[in-house]
Amino acid sequence: MSETRVLRQVERRIPQALLLGYVLVFFVFLLAPIFFVVLVSFSDAAFITFPVTDFSLRWYYRLLEYTPLLASLWFSLKLAAASAILAAILGVPAALALARSTSRVADVVSTFLLAPLSIPMILLGVALLYYLSAMGLGLSFISLLIAHTVVSIPYVVRTVVAVYRSVGRDYEESAAILGASNRQIFTYITLPLIGSGIFSGMLFAILISLDNLSLSLFFGSAQTNTLPVVMLSYLQNQFDPAIAAIGSVQMAIAFVVLLMIERTVGLEYMSSPS
Length: 274
Description:
Blueprint: H1 2-41, H2 58-65, H3 67-100, H4 104-113, H5 121-134, H6 141-167, H7 170-177, H8 182-210, H9 214-219, H10 227-237, H11 242-264
């Protein structure tokens, strides 16, 4: 009888053990390339090799000496900040209108605003290139800013809609009953309530902009090269651990941004229904 119970317990634990093993293998497969990049960035070798035998910070000093990488990083940060601000200006009113509406049209518009998340970036880049060229903008900072803003707006809309719907309209209705104007309600009630959603959406927009290669290839020029474009160009000509060093810096920026998002509203808002 005891042997039967033991066998049953073993049979019950086998699926759990298999699932745990699968999860461990999945995370190793997912994190191994990141670990490899960070480890190689501290290599003292003249080219990328593994395993790393001698460690050094020479390739991080190389980043300070290689002007195009630093210039593109600074330009990418400015572009990401500008696109995030513009996405907030355009996305917040749209998010509030969608969150307050109960019509089916709002669902259609919401789907339309989230469309850039599902369209391949190459296809979106080709469409924007033709459209903006027809407008006479061509390859310029304005075109690049518009392209990055288009893919940033859905993140702002999604986070703001999720935060606003989780809070509800009770506070706004109470303020209206007490005689507050629409401007006062928005300034002192609505904006503070959705502030974390706006901030998180803008951080997501910055993160997406910093990592966007496809759109930057379409609209970039000698004066508007972003970090991913310069990294790709560097890889085509050289194969040293400097590219791993700048990749590690980029991942560190992404980690800090994601940590800030988690501390403000939580990453679960990106998967909550809008």
